[in-house]
Amino acid sequence: MKTLVVDHPLVAHKLTTLRDERTDSPTFRRLTDELVTLLAYEATRDVRVTDVTVSTPVAPAHGVRLARPVPLVVPILRAGLGMLDGMTRLLPTAEVGFLGMIRDEGTLKAQTYATRLPEDLSGRQCYVLDPMLATGGTLAAAIELLFARGAEDVTALCLLAAPEGLAHLEQVFAGSGNPVRVVTASLDERLNEHGYIVPGLGDAGDRLYGVV
């Protein structure tokens, strides 16, 4: 498994405002959108392309286009929805699937309550959107589901990650032969006794959409 912490002043600036408890939901949503586009630039560095030649007004030019099958973007509901526009802005030809998962606050284990994904993901590159990589249980379950349907490789985009979550993913996918990558804006200190990232930014879903 590979982990990339995106080190960029604009990323750090936007993340600082996201962390601030005084930031309201409309601003939080806008900054999340902008931040994800910056993360997506790095996350798609290995997206598959094919060589093409086009005609400019002057002469033929060699270039590339995204290969088929096109990538699949999978936000984990509900907080992952706040990352979708920022990702598809950079990757507009990608298809979008949806995965509804919730963490049991008692066991901290992930439970799936909804899926809207192709049954066959053979040869597909998948990008999973999940704002917080905390214990890693939800993200690991989502990635396992994608690989079970034939996904070729999976990249997860997370606003924040905790060392415990990364360690869990390493444990689950070590030696599996399935390529997994995590791209995040920050690797934070730790988890607290409630499984929240410290210093973190609170509950991403509540800060995006309010408490419902």
From TrEMBL:
Q: Which GO terms describe its biological process?
A: UMP salvage; uracil salvage
The segment(s) forming the Phosphoribosyltransferase domain are 5-210
**Pathway membership, UniProt:** Pyrimidine metabolism; UMP biosynthesis via salvage pathway; UMP from uracil: step 1/1
Quote the cofactor binding remark: Binds 1 Mg(2+) ion per subunit. The magnesium is bound as Mg-PRPP.
Q: What does UniProt list under activity regulation? A: Allosterically activated by GTP.
Q: What is its EC number?
A: 2.4.2.9
**For binding 5-phospho-alpha-D-ribose 1-diphosphate, which residues are annotated in this chain's numbering?**
R78, R103, D130, P131, M132, L133, A134, T135, G136, G137, T138, D203
Q: What Pfam families does the record point to? A: UPRTase
Give binding positions for uracil: I197, G202, D203, A204
Tell me the protein family, please.
Belongs to the UPRTase family.
Q: What is this protein called?
A: Uracil phosphoribosyltransferase
Q: Which cofactor does it need?
A: Mg(2+)
Q: Which PANTHER family match?
A: ADENINE PHOSPHORIBOSYLTRANSFERASE, URACIL PHOSPHORIBOSYLTRANSFERASE, CHLOROPLASTIC
